[in-house]
Amino acid sequence: MMPNFLLSNLKQARSALEQGNVPKTQSLAMAVLAQDARSAAAYFLLGVCEMTRGNIRSGKDLLETSVGFEPSVEGCAQLARVFLLLRRDADALAALQEAEACLNTGKESDAITRDTIGCAYSRLGMHAASLAHFEAATRGAPSNTAFFYNWAVALSFVGRIDEADKAFEALIARAPDNARAHHGLSGLRRQTAERNHVPRLRATLARAEDPEARLLLGYALSKELEEIGQAKESFQFLFDANKAHKKQLAYSIEQDEKIFDAIEQNWPLYAQAPVNNAPVEEPVFIIGMPRTGTTLVDRIISSHPDMVSAGELQAFPIAVKAASGVRTRLVLDVETIAKAADKNLGMIGRDYIARARSHLPAQGMRFSDKFPGNFMYAGLIARALPSARIICLRRHPMDTVLSNFKNLFATTSRYYDYSYSIEDIARYYVRFDRLMRFWQQEIPERILEVQYENIVLDQENITRSILEHCGLSWNDACLSFHKNNAAVSTPSAAQVRRPLYRDALERWKQHEEDLMPARHILEQAGITL
Known about the structure:
Layout: H1 4-18, H2 22-35, H3 40-52, H4 56-69, H5 73-85, H6 89-104, H7 111-123, H8 127-140, H9 145-157, H10 161-174, H11 179-186, H12 198-207, H13 211-227, H14 231-246, H15 253-272, E1 284-288, H16 294-302, E2 307-309, H17 315-324, H18 334-339, H19 345-357, E3 366-369, H20 378-384, E4 389-394, H21 397-405, H22 422-442, E5 447-451, H23 452-457, H24 459-470, H25 516-524
Parallel strand pairs: 1-3, 1-4, 2-3, 4-5
InterPro entries: P-loop_NTPase, TPR-like_helical_dom_sf, TPR_rpt, TPST-like
Protein name: Sulfotransferase
Organism: Acetobacter malorum DSM 14337
């Protein structure tokens, strides 16, 4: 039984932490440890303090000590969070499993801990597993709008659209100006003239002052206006939202062009690098510009009974980053490309497979990885994973420009900074096209290029060619990809739950005048339109 004064110190320390008073929390926790060197609660508080200060690794050590003395739901949840920050997904999953074990024994947890667990599962792509925790968080703290938002998004990811709709509406009823809720609700389904949120979105945008809120609302309003046939006004809202957001970014297209240059210039070193003990696994990489059909092809492939989707993994970029030994802020930059060029590619391949396993819903099966940005690494993938299959999606260049411009990607990711300017997207496409032609020359017959339009117009024959390239037998389920119940966490979530439709073809012609700057850039680069 812990003495009352120690219990009092721990209670005060927790209260100080909740108030953001890290020094007081640390002082009180250290006082507890002076009397009880095995106090799991004190080590937990010190670990969270270190994480709050940005000292992730020391925070991890303290949290591991806490859980080692006495596993708790909150200790395991925070440990999972810190492992995710360190890109140690397998360890994060193990911590989550220990948190579940604590819950099963009846140990207490609060709403923020359940939300933390839900967020950790989401980061691992395990959206079905996150649902119960997000729902528990909303029950424990019904006034917390962030918890309600996370729950609604998780419901949308697993295809429970009507429930997600109700959850978003309940959130908006509590917080009428919550831009994330409006944006999430708008993306659930295609709007109609009879059923849409345009008047409410207009009013909410008119009140909004926060730049991120205006960005989210601008995208939502643009989407719904286009879907009810007001293409001209839709594009104007989209243009204004993107223009305002780009002004806040310290970005120029030259930054990405330097990365493309570095990949091409360093390729001779990668082509000659050792490949020792390469994995025998046969993952399928689905690559290309975003919004060109990568999710569609992933659903087709993962509908095959011998395949499972691992989602959009950062595993290969992180494996390359780890091999480079470079500690720069970005996963992909010029220095990382140069420093990884002479490393053992077999080691990178093994690291990738180890990282990918944490994201697989079923172990021992072949899997697909649909992170579009892996097109940057196609040559490295081909060498590091000799049995991997690579499929590159292509779409009409102008539709590619438009689809990138009108879909809001993760604003915290630097991969997509090019997507807020029509001219930047066009120049990015030029370099993408050039790099793919480069890869076809350097790693011939390793990449199957698939035209999105051809899938729509000739679904069965293109599906057969995809399966043949992947070494998969024919299966009728691949034609019914829209019946695949797996979670989808990309902007394509609503589309891939419908059978193939043709209304996305040549959509750029609705905005031909507005897209003229992109057309000039593409034509000057010799790209056929």
